[in-house]
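Methods, example record. To illustrate the input and output format used throughout this study, we show the complete record for Nucleoporin Nup133/Nup155-like N-terminal domain-containing protein. The sequence lines were provided to the predictor; the line carrying structure tokens was produced by it.
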Amino acid sequence: MFSPARGKLGKGKGAGLHIPAPASPALVPHASPHKHSPVSLRGSPSPLFPWSSASPIPPRVSASPEGEEKTSSDGKEPVLVSNFPQQLRNSFFERPASRTDPGIHGGMDGKSCLSWVIHGNTLYVWNHLNSHTVQGCAVLTIPTHLSAWPGMADSNFSEDWLVCLVGWPAEDQNDLSFVKACKSAGVVMCHRRTLAVAYWPDVFKDGDTAVVTLGPGYHVEGTSTPASEENRRRSSSGWTGSSGGPGGELLNSLLASEIPGGAAQSCVVIAARSNGELWRYDCCPLGITREQISRDVGARQDVGLIAFNSSCTRSMVWRFPADKPQQGMRQLLLLTASELECWNIELGPAGKATQVWVFNILGNPDTQKDLAGQKQVWLLDLQVDDSGNFFTVLVASFSKDRLNSSSFMQYSILTFFDNNPPHGDVVRKAPLQVILPKARVEEEDVLYSMRLRIGGKPVGSAVILAGDGTATIACYSGGSLKLYQFDLAWGAGKVLDASVVPVLEEVEGSWLVLTEKSGIWAVPERAIIFGGVEPPERSLSRRSSSRDDPAKEERQRDSAAIRSTAESGGLDNRAPRSIAQRPLHDEEAEAIVGRMFQQYLSTGRVDSAREKLERAGAFEREVEMNIFARTSRVIVDTLAKHWVAGGAGSAAIMAAVSSQLIEKQRRHQQYLNFLSISSCHEELQAKQRGAMHAIMEHGEKLAAMVQLRELHNVKAQARAPISGTFTGSVSLENVEVSGALWDTVLLVGEKARRNNVMLMDREKSEVFYTRVSELEEFYACIQQHATSIIGQEQPVRTQAERLCELAEATTSAIKAAARYKDAQSSWYPSPEALTPWYCQPTVRSGLSKIASLILDLKAEASVSVPSLMPKLVSWLEVVTDVLLDGYAGAITAKVEREEEYRGLQMEYWSRRDTLLSALQRHAKEVADASVQYLHDEGTAEQQRRSVLQKMYPSLVTIARRHAGYQTLYNICSDLKDMDQLRDLMRESMGFREGRFSHYVFNQLYETKKYSTLLQFGQEFQQELEVFLQEHIHLRWLHEIFMQQYASACSTLHSLALSPSVGEEERSEKVFVKRRRVKDKIRERRRLLYLAKLSALAGGELAGGDKISKIDANININVIQEVAHEKGIVSDDVLSPLQLIESFFKSGDRDLVVRAFEVFAYAGDSFRASNRSLLEAAWLHAADQDNWASMKDVSEELGWSDEQYWLTLQASLLCQISTKCYSKGASYYGSPFQDFLPLFESNRTEEDHPSIIKSESSATSVETILRQHKDFSDAGEAMLTALRIGVSGDSLDDKELDLEPMLDI
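The corresponding predicted structure is encoded as:
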């Protein structure tokens, strides 16, 4: 309804609304958050309300969802309540929007806190205040067979259904917390055309989404009335309207109510059709019955303010909440075209519906007094408060201004009160409250798309929802009406519905809005109070705004500077009310600018203009609200004073338009000279860059408009011989004006005329070429109507000609603006943070539409008319160049303003890659076609390369400017031109996306061209080093190639110990070939030896710490290999701790000894951090020999010293002592003796000060062994085995004298 309201502006007087007598004025009485119609009808037409290109409201910038935690906590911005459920988001991803996709439709139920959305053929229902409820989101498949009806035209599937939710009562009736999830709810869907119904009794019941259906009704055509026939005749379609008004005889309201005390999960559903018919459905899990409610729907003529069928329904609501039953029935309020009807609906099976009372709203004397002077009145929607006694009606009325005979719409709210409920003694509660005094005239289908919601904070506020997806909140603040437009800076799509946060004790909560793209948002009370603005004088719809630019909104609305030029008299003879409300210094500044400019035009001199303007405050306003910018806009938008006779395409009008454009260019240049001579230009450049930029953009648009006019002349002359044979001066005059450009001009001109009643008597083409500052509308029209402009029903050749004409028009206009900018560069301010007009979303969307259509038509023409391909591709290349420049400029401005740009950047990259890839594919197709009859491979390759070399240069130029890495790499690969590839890699393009060299490296890596990749190391050493940080399997080769042996040693050492050694990682391709599992250990050993060689090559000495560590890892690898051959461990890289634990669990004596070798090679830090494990290892080693049995056997058999020696020498304690404590022991780090001595007699602080201290109580191996269970009996033998091992002597070298060893 409203186009985006984006901030605050200077206040003007209110619209003359009546404020009720109490101290706290309220727009509407206290209302329920859930007493609204559950379905909002969404039509395509845009409505009318305040903020558009003519509105003075600057934009309101909100934080993006990604940065919502950074949003100010002062409550002045909308707050994200919940995102869409994951199931719905997945559906968006799996079924992205297309050109014919009508989008999604949805609604909210305030009482149950449930929201629903239809996407495709699926209905999603979830709790919008508690996204973490147990039941989550209900996903319901809509039975498509219910919408099939013989002879019915195809329609948007989701728009054909009305949805109503029924919350079943909870077990705990005393729980009033609104955050409690609705544990049980039913869903009713009714087809708007066929009256078919689908009913889900309990959508949140686990594993049960059974649906009960009732097929189409037999009377779907309804009753034809004179009113409906009149509505059909009056309904029209076009750019500013849509089909499907009230004469469509569709369902427009649906209500449901549970049946208290009835069967479980049973409900009564009431449906209303636009022709006045009422239908009742009784739904339960066992079935559905349908019955038409008897009601007079004949054509009744009222003596009030309307003269059409007053029985047509507009809206329905339940009068009282469901928790206030009255003897098994509920009262229904039905709003018709002129009356308010009250019905009693019996909720039992086969219950009756009886009319209780009727109140004629438009026939009421008070209402007629309020609406006196209105030509026609429409009652649009009805809402009721919690008490059921206050009725609020949204009203639209049509009127004419007696001063200038202009037509306008007025939007108001009527409030009524029932003095004798429930029998009905309805009186007006307060005078008519005007929301918008003067708005654009709209078609009826636009009016009927509006919906009213009441009950939120601020108290007395109301939300008006419109068919174009806008939501506007109206409330009183500071004694005047304020309007607040919900809008997010990054685009939330349409607003599907609104509700209120339910709170306890019947106090209204904040407003909630369900958006099309960004989930559910809450609008705090402070945001409405501080962000609301007073209604403007005239409003346009969202569609009329060419871009979300507050400056443009101001310059379209404000006509105060008209008095500054002599040419302005024909534009508007009535000064808007807002002019008198602007600050006095604005009036003075405008007058001074006008006088000084006129003085300059007549005398060529200015007298102290700058000083006078500074005193008047002319330099205080920003951007296009600046006095100088507004004056510039008046110059370029001025209409000709005198009327020119002739039709829309007459030569007289076209000649007048051309001459007027040239005159505007001359006058605008004079205005620039005036700014320079008066020294205002310097002030604007220094302090008002935005205003000066806007002034220069007016010159750019003038140049672009002149270019369009010249192009149209050229096209018209080219068609002259085709249209007929003409001679003399009459030939051009009688040529039938046609073509895509001309059709677009007429469409834009027609839209401008509809938006401004003062232009209705002007020719469409004259209006288009006059409204220079609104050139963006040209691109907006193409974006919306390009398909119909080119005529998809026409032959392919005709479509191609018209599409190329549009491409030429759109791109030549922007190029003309760029030429103007180059020629006038000295006039421009510094461009930082300023977005040119041709970089705006509207312009980009128009160009994107043309590019998409060219791609589609190219695919069709390649089969049917191949001769059209060169022309289509040529224009596609031009459009691509201009479009990508627009994206680049927009992103640059966002970055300089420190705004979020990632989303736009992703869109830019996607467009770039799509278009450049299409252009490259075409070049390759042409090259392949040129060699298809050549049989010699050498000749064919040479011919193919020659063709590509001719076609690629222009594509390379575009790709270089926009960092099209994929295209550039493919081009160099196709041409096999490594020199060009190296030249491109040396450029610093694409700084934010990453250098092109990095992209090339990655492509070579992905395609396993490792040798080519490493050859770039010498020229791009630093870049390749950065790239190989993530690819360790290749980095060591590059380091050896660069003779960085120390780095290569570290890389190889790390690679050898990494888990992925010897195999290809799944996440990336590696250089080392994939080997069988058993080769991993050998591969690790190879890498360790390479690391050792690299260290030696780098100057490391044998025996140094680095080489010793590598040797230790080699030894550990050998130990693991032995264990792997025994099947104890895998060949994956295992830590020393893992190896030791595996060895102890194996039960293998040899591996127990190997475990101590691992201790030896693991280093000091490992031994210190695992001291307890080492102590346990000694005890475990002692357990490997049966010491008690050894003693008994030796005593029983009387062993000799030799036998005793040999037995002890074979024990594990002896072997471990030899491996770790003998003179030939091998280890890494400090000796074992320094860490853990063998005997207590060896441990003295004086002799061994380097013994590492520990918290453990064990100070030697002897101390550890004393804990063994057999030490008391075989301790001497254990210690003797240790002494034999540490001595390292064999039996042949030692005289058998064990007495000294046994002496403890």
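Annotations derived from this record:
Residues 349 and 1032 are 77 Å apart (CA to CA).
The first helix runs from residue 86 to 94.
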